[in-house]
């Protein structure tokens, strides 16, 4: 090597190193895409997708779904609300009241396997930026009076003359929690059979185990001392499920489900699982059912607006062809501000849907 | 210093194109933000009274300006800031690859190539004009005294004892003339002798000009040895007898004077002026009645046709009176503060006249190794080569042939005129019908001056840029720079200047890319240059391989960086459509922040560093491949916007397909539903995969590192998702991410879409690539295929270019 003998004389040689990396000679695979090579690959992938498609078709066939809209359901005769045409109308005139309504429907097919019950809201923007961040995860984890609370404003706390009360849970998400109660009866040979509904294991397990914990306290009520229920709630957080301590307070699964904000303005959330252990072991048989609704959740406008707004669906449908963006906004008379309580006008429609799950392993 | 210009800041053409497009993209960003902000305002107006849960009425902060700002921030990465960082890193590494190239390392001087800037790596792939100095660039600048003509007799150097030495030993008139000639050679110069410390009889010469050195060495060969220089004396030994010449004045060589002279007092006490210089300037100053003039001119022509460099030697005796008078003037001029050079030249004129011609010298400057082959390759790569030299026209033409710059069958147009009118006439003639074959233009320095004057300039340049080769003889450094500027402005093509001496600095700085030859003539050229190589032949690898590669890599990197950012950030826009234009991000904030830092950082780096569209061998064997990058066929405004459109198209698929798939909400087997971030993480996964695979699609040569960058990036995202989902509540970080790993990875729909969505997005790109290659293959692709089939690509390339 000439250079090495030189380098002995003149100090280190500046000769570059002859490595594959430095000389840019790393071995390489050079794929060449022509019709001849790409078409067979497309073909192969196409074939590979065939079983996928078949699997999808089969599962899609197995999925059974029944949707029951109840936004404009009629109040049950003989209740306080029966003087009104619809429950929506009643609760918009009586803030905080409950309206009962029954809806009869029938299943044309057997719903085999596990059946899940969802509630669905359309045109409800749980993904709005201000809404999404309006929560406090530390509070929901049971940490009392955590420092970062700005996110919850204006649903963080309230002051009367001397005392401060913290909203529990704070924030807009919690404040707008869905609070209708839904029950299901099966009409079997003229007798009503109540369908058993399970209220647990409807939320993400990680949410139950990690994210939602009640604060420490002798009793649950004591643990929430110094807090106040969110403005739109009918009962306090420690009264969400008086029957089951493990499903009460922040650990209430309905709350947990609601707190996981949906991606799109038309969404559904898991409400109950049908109990298949004693009755309805095979699923829900075809036949007639009644949906019993305790209607609390305001989704249509009130305060006289209603009269000026004809049927939402028709108008909304005309205005906005994009299905998930049925905006309801029309020009409305200005409200006189001054109410501390927010007015609760409406997203357009509310529905409950029943649906058996997708991938039944029958 | 007279010829120097301020060093410019050079930026590559690609960079300039990009800057313009970034501005356009910024407008797009503003328009998108404006649309979003207006939509947001409308949405708010329509929902403020109805959507009670959004407490829009309670907090009235959302002003229009605030919204606009929100969206500008939301979409800001449409303009990839990461591009600048990636680009800098890549270019820096590319420059190091140039330095590392063993093929451009010159062992005899232990010099590797040196990239002195990393700005212009891709510019090397777009060169259309090369301006080359001759001496020291095409040639070795190792001068050898070959022949001479003394008193009308031509002497050639022979291997054995030469006829001249034999003649010198005689004592006739000719011997005296030879002696006088040799003494002039060994006295009239500025060379400094250096004695070896160990052995004082060995003398080496240090000279600023290799010509002078060659002449001194030459004289020594014939018995006249220059061995000592004191501030006032030069001592030479003639046939071992020392003679002491007192040096009274030295009037130095300048490129305008084209000669140097000394005034000496000979040992006999006579005052003599000795001059050596270019034949044109010496001839003008000869005293009338020079019997050997004609025959010497004849010899000079003969030397020039052999490609030798010629100098004339002349002397004149001075009277004491003239000298003492002149001395005063000269002293004044040489101590002048302003315009010293000009004044000295004027004073020198007074004494450099009535010369007696002694003879002429011929010095050989050999071509460097591989110059003809290199010039041939560069010409075949569609590069036009201009040689700018100070030599005589004949010498230049001869060198032109021996370096294959001029070929048999080429039409050679020689412009050699004496006046502006004549020049104009000649140029008018050249405007006549186009010739078929290649044309070469040879133009003389004097003519060039006329041709570059205002009213001929346009005609000249229009004709010259069409010529395959141009040789400009006897040009001054300033003219060199002027020519480069002229071509640069006239044809809007990328120019390269290569030279080795201080007189090339002007053109090196003027050209888009300046190359310095790190050779014998000092460091000025290298210091002014952008790239330094030590041999002209390395230029082929620098341009045809590094230039073509770097261009292809940098353009791919740029297009890709824009693509990947737009792909992700337009999704924010789609999400705004369904989230009430609220500015909510569908991804977690750190995840989106790390997009350019981790998850898609490596693929553009790998593209920019390791992609090779053709092998070194093919690039050098088929110089025509260079035209792909030279003509910007793979990177221009149109292609840039096609990529952007493609990115938007991908974002549509990447967002709306998962949205449709999740429209039932029920994502899990146990009937549970996801949330917005579940959708976000799903979409994000598909974005990362699609974008990484797109990088793979653009990669022509998958090295180990390309594999690592693509698959590693995808893996890094999966790993990150798994780890990041467990941060909270241990760290006060990302509560929204809790459980994401379990539910995303546990979702059958997610895996099914994982196969489907990236494929759906990329199927167009695949099909397009395949169709393009099948239907209208370009030369690069042809060569790639032949290479794969182990066939010789050269013939195919010729066929392709013939078809054109």
TrEMBL record, chain A:
Residues 332-347 have a biased composition (Basic residues). It is found in: Membrane. GO terms for cellular component: endoplasmic reticulum; Golgi apparatus; plasma membrane. It comes from the Eukaryota. Residues 350-362 have a biased composition (Polar residues). The chain crosses the membrane at residues 32-58. PANTHER family: CDC50, ISOFORM A, CELL CYCLE CONTROL PROTEIN 50. It comes from Ridgeia piscesae (Tubeworm). It is a multi-pass membrane protein. The keyword Ribosomal protein does not apply. Residues 1-23, 332-362 are annotated as: Disordered. This is P4-ATPase flippase complex beta subunit TMEM30A. Keywords: Membrane, Transmembrane, Transmembrane helix. InterPro entries: CDC50/LEM3_fam. Belongs to the CDC50/LEM3 family. Residues 7-21 have a biased composition (Basic and acidic residues). It holds the Pfam family CDC50.
TrEMBL record, chain B:
It is found in: Endomembrane system; Golgi apparatus; Membrane. One of its GO terms (biological process) is phospholipid translocation. GO terms for cellular component: plasma membrane; trans-Golgi network. Its cofactor is Mg(2+). InterPro entries: ATPase_P-typ_cyto_dom_N (IPR023299), ATPase_P-typ_P_site (IPR018303), ATPase_P-typ_TM_dom_sf (IPR023298), HAD-like_sf (IPR036412), HAD_sf (IPR023214), P-type_ATPase_IV (IPR006539), P_typ_ATPase (IPR001757), P_typ_ATPase_c (IPR032630). Keywords: ATP-binding, Golgi apparatus, Magnesium, Membrane, Metal-binding, Nucleotide-binding, Phosphoprotein, Translocase, Transmembrane, Transmembrane helix. The active site is at residue 133. Pfam families: Cation_ATPase (PF13246), PhoLip_ATPase_C (PF16212). Mg(2+) binds at residues 133, 135, 500, 504. Its main location: membrane. ATP binds at residues 133-135, 212, 253, 276, 309, 389-391, 474, 480, 503-504. Its EC number is 7.6.2.1. GO terms for molecular function: ATP binding; ATP hydrolysis activity; ATPase-coupled intramembrane lipid transporter activity; magnesium ion binding. It catalyses: ATP + H2O + phospholipidSide 1 = ADP + phosphate + phospholipidSide 2; a 1,2-diacyl-sn-glycero-3-phospho-L-serine(out) + ATP + H2O = a 1,2-diacyl-sn-glycero-3-phospho-L-serine(in) + ADP + phosphate + H(+). The chain crosses the membrane at residues 21-40, 60-79, 566-584, 590-610, 639-657, 677-697, 704-723, 743-763. It is a multi-pass membrane protein. It comes from the Eukaryota. The keyword Protein biosynthesis does not apply. It is an enzyme of class 7 (translocase). The keyword Cell membrane does not apply. Residues 526-776 form the P-type ATPase C-terminal domain. PANTHER family: PHOSPHOLIPID-TRANSPORTING ATPASE, PROBABLE PHOSPHOLIPID-TRANSPORTING ATPASE. NCBIfam families: ATPase-Plipid (TIGR01652), ATPase_P-type (TIGR01494). Belongs to the cation transport ATPase (P-type) (TC 3.A.3) family. Type IV subfamily. This is Phospholipid-transporting ATPase.
């Amino acid at each position: 090597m000439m250079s090495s003998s030189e380098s002995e004389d003149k100090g280190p040689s500046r000769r570059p190193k002859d490595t594959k990396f430095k000389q840019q000679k790393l071995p390489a695979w050079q794929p060449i895409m022509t019709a001849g090579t790409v078409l067979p690959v497309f073909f192969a992938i196409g074939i590979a997708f065939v079983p996928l498609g078949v699997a999808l078709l089969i599962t899609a066939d197995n999925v059974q779904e029944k949707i029951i809209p109840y936004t404009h359901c009629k109040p049950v005769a003989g209740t306080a609300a029966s003087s009104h045409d619809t429950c929506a109308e009643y609760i918009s005139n009586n803030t905080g009241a409950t309206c009962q309504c029954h809806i009869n429907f029938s299943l044309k097919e057997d719903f085999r396997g596990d059946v899940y019950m969802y509630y669905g809201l359309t045109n409800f923007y749980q993904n709005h930026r201000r809404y999404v961040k309006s929560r406090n995860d530390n509070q929901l984890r049971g940490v009392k009076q955590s420092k970062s609370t700005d996110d919850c404003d204006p649903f963080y706390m309230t002051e009367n003359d001397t005392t401060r009360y913290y909203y529990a849970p704070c924030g807009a998400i919690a404040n707008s929690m869905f609070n209708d109660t839904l029950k299901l009866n099966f009409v079997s040979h003229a007798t009503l059979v109540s369908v058993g509904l399970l209220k647990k294991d409807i939320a993400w397990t990680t949410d139950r185990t990690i994210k939602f914990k009640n604060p420490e306290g002798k009793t649950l009520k004591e643990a929430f001392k110094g807090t106040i229920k969110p403005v739109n709630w009918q009962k306090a957080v420690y009264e969400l499920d008086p029957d089951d301590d493990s499903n009460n307070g922040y650990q209430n699964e309905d709350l947990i489900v609601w707190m996981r904000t949906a991606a799109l303005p038309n969404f559904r959330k898991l409400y109950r699982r049908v109990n298949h252990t004693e009755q309805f072991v095979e699923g829900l048989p075809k036949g007639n059912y009644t949906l019993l609704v305790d209607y609390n959740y305001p989704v249509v406008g009130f305060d006289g607006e209603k009269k000026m707004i004809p049927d939402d669906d028709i108008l909304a449908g005309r205005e906005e062809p994009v299905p998930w963006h049925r905006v309801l906004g029309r020009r409305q008379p200005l409200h006189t501000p001054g109410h501390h309580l927010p007015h609760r006008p409406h997203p357009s429609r509310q529905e409950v849907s029943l649906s058996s799950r997708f991938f039944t392993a029958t | 210093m007279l010829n120097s210009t301020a060093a410019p800041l050079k930026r590559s053409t690609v960079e300039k194109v990009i800057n313009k497009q970034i501005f356009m993209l910024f407008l797009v960003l503003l328009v998108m933000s404006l649309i979003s902000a207006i939509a947001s305002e409308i949405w708010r107006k329509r929902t403020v009274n109805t959507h009670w849960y959004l407490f829009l009425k309670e907090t009235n902060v959302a002003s229009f300006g605030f919204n606009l700002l929100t969206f500008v921030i939301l979409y800001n990465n449409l303009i990839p800031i990461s591009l600048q960082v990636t680009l800098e890193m890549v270019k820096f590494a590319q420059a190091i690859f140039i330095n590392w190239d063993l093929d451009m390392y010159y062992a005899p001087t232990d010099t590797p190539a040196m990239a002195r800037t990393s700005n212009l790596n891709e510019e090397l792939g777009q060169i259309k004009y090369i301006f080359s100095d001759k001496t020291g660039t095409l040639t070795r600048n190792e001068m050898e005294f070959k022949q001479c003509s003394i008193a009308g007799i031509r002497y050639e150097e022979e291997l054995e004892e030469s006829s001249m030495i034999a003649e010198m030993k005689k004592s006739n008139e000719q011997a005296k003339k030879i002696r006088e000639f040799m003494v002039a050679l060994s006295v009239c110069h500025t060379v400094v002798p250096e004695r070896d410390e160990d052995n004082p009889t060995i003398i080496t010469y240090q000279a600023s000009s290799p010509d002078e050195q060659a002449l001194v060495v030459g004289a020594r060969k014939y018995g006249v040895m220059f061995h000592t220089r004191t501030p006032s004396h030069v001592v030479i030994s003639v046939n071992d007898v020392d003679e002491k010449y007192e040096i009274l004045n030295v009037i130095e060589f300048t490129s305008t004077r084209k000669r140097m002279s000394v005034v000496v007092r000979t040992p006999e006490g006579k005052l003599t002026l000795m001059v050596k210089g270019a034949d044109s300037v010496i001839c003008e100053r000869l005293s009338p009645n020079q019997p050997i003039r004609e025959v010497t001119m004849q010899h000079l022509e003969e030397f020039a046709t052999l490609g030798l460099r010629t100098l004339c030697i002349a002397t004149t005796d001075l009277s004491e009176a003239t000298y003492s008078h002149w001395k005063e003037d000269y002293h004044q001029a040489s101590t002048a503060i302003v315009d010293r050079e000009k004044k000295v030249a004027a004073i020198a004129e007074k004494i450099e006249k009535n010369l007696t011609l002694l003879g002429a010298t011929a010095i050989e400057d050999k071509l460097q190794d591989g110059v003809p082959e290199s010039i041939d390759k560069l010409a075949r790569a569609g590069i036009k080569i201009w040689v700018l030299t100070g030599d005589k026209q004949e010498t230049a033409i001869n060198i032109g042939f021996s370096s294959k710059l001029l070929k048999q069958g080429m039409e050679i147009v020689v412009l050699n005129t004496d006046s502006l009118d004549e020049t104009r006439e000649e140029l008018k003639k050249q405007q006549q019908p186009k010739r078929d074959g290649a044309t070469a233009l040879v133009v003389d320095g004097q003519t060039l001056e006329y041709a570059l004057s205002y009213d001929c300039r346009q005609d000249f340049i229009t004709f010259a840029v069409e010529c395959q080769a141009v040789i400009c003889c006897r040009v001054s450094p300033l003219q060199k720079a002027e020519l480069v500027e002229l071509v640069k402005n006239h044809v809007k093509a990328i120019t390269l200047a290569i030279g080795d001496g201080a007189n090339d600095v002007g053109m090196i700085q003027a050209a888009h890319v300046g190359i310095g030859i790190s050779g014998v003539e000092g460091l000025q050229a290298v210091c002014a240059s952008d790239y330094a190589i030590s041999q002209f032949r390395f230029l082929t690898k620098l341009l045809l391989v590094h230039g073509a590669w770097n261009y292809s890599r940098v353009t791919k990197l740029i297009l890709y960086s824009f693509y990947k950012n737009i792909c992700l950030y337009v999704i924010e826009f789609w999400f705004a459509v369904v989230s009430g234009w609220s500015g909510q991000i569908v991804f977690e904030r750190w995840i989106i922040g790390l997009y350019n830092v981790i998850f898609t950082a490596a693929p553009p780096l790998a593209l920019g560093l390791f992609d090779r569209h053709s092998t070194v061998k093919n690039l050098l064997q088929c110089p025509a491949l260079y035209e792909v990058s030279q003509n910007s066929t793979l990177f221009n405004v149109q292609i840039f916007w096609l990529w952007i459109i493609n990115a938007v198209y991908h974002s549509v698929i990447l967002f709306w397909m998962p949205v449709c798939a999740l429209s039932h909400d029920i994502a899990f087997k146990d009937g549970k539903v996801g949330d917005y971030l579940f959708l976000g993480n799903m979409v994000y996964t598909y974005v990362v995969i699609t974008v990484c695979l797109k990088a793979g699609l653009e990669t022509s040569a998958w090295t180990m590192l390309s594999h690592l960058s693509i698959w590693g990036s995808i893996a890094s995202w999966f790993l990150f998702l798994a780890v990041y989902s467990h941060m909270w509540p241990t760290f006060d970080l990302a509560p929204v991410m809790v459980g994401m790993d379990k539910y995303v990875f546990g979702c059958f729909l997610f895996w099914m879409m994982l196969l489907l969505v990236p494929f759906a997005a990329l199927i167009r790109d695949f099909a397009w690539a395949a169709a393009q290659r099948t239907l209208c293959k370009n030369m690069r692709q042809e060569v790639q295929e032949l290479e794969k089939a182990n066939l010789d690509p050269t013939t195919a390339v010729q066929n392709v270019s013939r078809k054109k």
